[in-house]
Structure prediction request, 164 residues.
Amino acid sequence: MYKASVNNQSFEISNDGETWIVNGHPLQWDVAPLSPRHFSIIYKNRSYNAEVVKIDSQTKTIELKLNGRKQTVQLRDNIDLLLEKMGMNTADSTKINAIRAPMPGLIIDLKIKAGDSVSIGDPLLVLEAMKMENVLKAHGEGVVKQVKVKKGDSVEKGQLLIEF
Prediction:
């Protein structure tokens, strides 16, 4: 599944192998490639000329021209959605809001406390899961507002660990 954002509107997109499904409804369209970056699209008896202007895999954005008008599409895949749900949004990598447990486990060490400033890559805590130590690191910058766990706590997947 994907989520696409265009002009402040959000769409859930999936594919069942044959049909694209948008917000739970099958997409009824005809697409014909004219060249590697140009397409002819017929949707609801209207014809559209689409050109892929730019694809930025780092920010997961696609810049299109649809009948000459520029549109920017922001895509998020299952991994992006899962990271966002755990408080590790990759689209906003400069500021942290929260860190959630990526898996169930045991907190064996805390590297930060409330009031600490963190930068990208700073170790935050050590989570033991399946007899392996996992160092959770900051994926952005922020100031620790509250540490919701302590050394020795058992945590569940998705549990809030640190607030920024």
User: Anything to note?
Assistant: The CA atoms of residues 68 and 130 lie 54 Å apart. The chain has two domains: 2-76, 91-163.
